[in-house]
Amino acid sequence: MNFHSLEQLAVLSAERGVTIGRLMLKEQAMESGKSPEQEFELMAQYYNVMKEAVKRGLTEDTTSRSGLTGRDAQRVMAFGDGQEMSLGKAAGDAMAYALAVSEVNASMGRIIATPTAGSAGIIPGVFVSCQERFGWSDEHMVYGLFAAGAIGYVIANNSFVSGAEGGCQAEVGSAIGMAAGALTDMRGGTPAQSIHAVGLALKNTLGLICDPVGGLVEIPCIVRNGFGAVTALAAADMALAGVRSVIPSDEVVQVMLEVGSSMPEKHRETAGGGLAQTPTGKAIMNNLRKR
After folding, report:
1. pTM > 0.90: yes or no
2. Cα–Cα distance for residue pair 143/152, rounded to 1 Å
3. Where are the domains of the chain?
4. Any idea which fold 6-290 has?
5. By Cβ atoms counted within 10 A, which residue in 37, 45, 58, 227 is the most buried?
6. What CA–CA distance (Å, rounded) separates 121 from 118?
């Protein structure tokens, strides 16, 4: 890739007069040796999987094998159908769709890790709900996925996207940043605004620990995806309105690395601390071991 930082990504996109998504498609094709058409088709297939996961999570039984989670997305949708949501319909749909994909993951369904399985609901939640809301084509959404991929590429190579390495800030936080930056790009924001959206989003999740109850990617992972989708929408709107990340986004990524590296092991996907070690968390773990 011809960029190694978010600033370089924004500058290169602006210099070439293209969106971040279109820039990334060309860069990815050069990197892989495949044609842009081949890369686009592959990403289109990924987006179809995302849409299918949203649909499945809203219409099928997503009860996990543990029995701990399932059908919360459907509960949120039913609530929104019955009365006005505090969030409003747009954000409510994004939240429900994110929950849906995460519940499909927990029930052993097919999802796309973006960037991980534990954070796989955020980008589909934002993308599918916004596609419905704004009437965007699948082609437009695929370019958005390339934009998200470009942002994720920089984060992964300068920090981490694994909860075992850097806590949930690395998984859910990175996904929120990817979704926010890509949404800004898709809505016609400048490359600089897209990168500000990433920084704004990441700052809101710094220090978020990874504390899966019972060691399963269910509690609190699924609800964090729902909240994450809403945060991504907010970060994109802030950036499009002209709100800037006063701390440059690349520096925020470095802070995520610093914070994650200093987290105790018990707060990095080991189920040794946080919510996993509450009385209820311990009871759930003991019950699971008896099965």
Report:
1. yes
2. 14
3. 6-290
4. 2-methylcitrate dehydratase PrpD (1.10.4100)
5. 58
6. 8
